[in-house]
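Q: Protein A?
A:
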Amino acid sequence: MKTELLDYVEGKSIKSEKQHFEVGDTVDVHLKIKEGDKERIQIFSGTVISRKGRGMNESFTVRRLVNEEGVERIFPVNSPNIVKIVPVRSGKTRRAKLYFLRDRIGKAVKLVQRHSKHTLKK
């Protein structure tokens, strides 16, 4: 009874259109930023290094390099401040969490691109 009620309430708050992305993908996260009484959209682009949680509590971590310094940001998937998530390229991974990328610098950060079945030549 209690879990059914929680699922019902969470179901109303969960975004209906979900963008598909996985760990290792490079994504552009379009964020709504409020400065005073003005609103604008800012893009945070980087590699998804982890996803955790489910339902209302689902979140993901995006990492990018700015001036040779690593910047990580954690986003809730169902946040009203996230306008959209655009996958740019998909990386080939064998792990669920890519924390090993924190120790890498420069070209070593780049993951091998995953090719879908439709783009391969026969």
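Q: Protein B?
A:
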Amino acid sequence: MEIRKATTEDLNGIMQIYAHARAFMAQTGNPHQWGDSGYPQEELIRKDMQEGISYVAEQEGKLEAAFVFFIGEDPLYRVIENGSWANDQPYGVVHRIASAGNVKGSGAQCILWAFAQCGNLRMDTHDDNRVMQHVLEKLGFQKCGRVYMEDGSPRIAYQKTQL
């Protein structure tokens, strides 16, 4: 599987991946994290592309996963409750990871790729997203506490580090 920066030519495929992910989350007991509002919206995906933080995983010419990755401070992670981050070293962040559902483990491959870029990776997920919690814990991430999104909704904070 090849991971690369997303381009505007990928936009329709990315939107299809996110539509599939919303349906999958609803079917697996997590209907509220992205809800039925169409999140993430095309405008946000375009902004991510312009900032150079939108990535896709491709296999045999087909998009199999989409995600945001960057190295740097995430304002949403400045305050953590009921715990603490594993360290205060520079870190990478993965947000909005989703798969097309065709290649088993494609999301995990994207997370491992991101970790390989920085060796210190933070992520978060909704309390109801048991699938992502399982993936993160299987990949060696540790629960660190609770962070809050811009709208005030809580998320479980995770970190994996080799530092």
